[in-house]
Amino acid sequence: MPEFIRTKMMNRYMLKLAIRILIFIVVFIFYVLHKDLLCDLMTQSIWLGITPLHALWMVFMLMMVTHIFPMDKLTMALRKAEPEQYQKVKGYSELALYRFVREQNIKAWNVMLVWLIFNAIFGFLYLVQILDNADLLMLTVFYFLCDYICILFYCPFQSVIMKNKCCINCRIYDWGHFMMFTPMLFIRNFFSWSLFFTSCVVLIHWEVIYAKHPERFWSGSNQTLQCEHCKDKTCQIKKKLSSKISLL
To answer: How far from 149 is each of 20, 30, 88, 144, 229, CA to CA, in Å?
Structure first.
């Protein structure tokens, strides 16, 4: 079994995971003890005072802005879309790239279909008033936590549908915010809709670059995405868990 490598990106991800767990726990405690107040805070105008939910909204918005204008400290799974990160594989096959893109697109839209159908259930329950605003907020915060669980430990989309070897090579890596804020679509509020529609901008931004420059997203045409050139190593825990499960 390869030795675990503590890269800067892995350390950063573990810290961010701890922060997301903390946010989830705080919101969940508030959800259980003061659900009615949580519903009121979700629709409260910022002119009546800044609440912790406004601060959380700002955190979410800043996260998405950094994905539209990425920084050096972000993972290569995201930064592979940048022209500066493209290192061409000499003599790669254009036909093989075309086949890769076609296959990945089919799988990606299968993920989208599954996700929309799954969340339509919560949307329906909200429209018939079985769920309320606080329930959808709790669901969003749960997705917020699951985003890093998928990156570090286990991703059902990767394992069942996409079949990509790691997040660095993930075709739908920047769909995370769209998935995270899908429940916010059903709440008629500036804060909720601004999160959802900004996440749509992030997704469209990603898809436009993918359509124009698919060679940046395939390890067969971009050396940066090949394992021997990877500096993030965020797949280590996931691979160890996968190997242990396969031995059972």
So the answer is: 10, 22, 31, 9, 24
Half-sphere exposure of 91 (CA within 13 A, CB side): 0
The amino acid present at 216, given as its one-letter code, is: R
Q: Answer positive or negative: Cα dihedral of 41, 46, 51, 52.
A: positive
**Tens digits of residue pLDDT in 171-182:** 999 999 999 999
Residue carrying the six token digits 């996931």: 238
Q: How many separate helices (H) and strands (E) can be counted in the chain?
A: 10, 0
**Helices in 132-235 by DSSP H: which ranges?**
133-152, 156, 176-180, 190-212
Q: What is the pLDDT of residue 181?
A: 97
pTM of the model: 0.92
Please check whether residue 7 is in contact with residue 236, taking contact to mean a CB–CB distance below 8 angstroms. no
Paired with 88 in beta bridges are 222
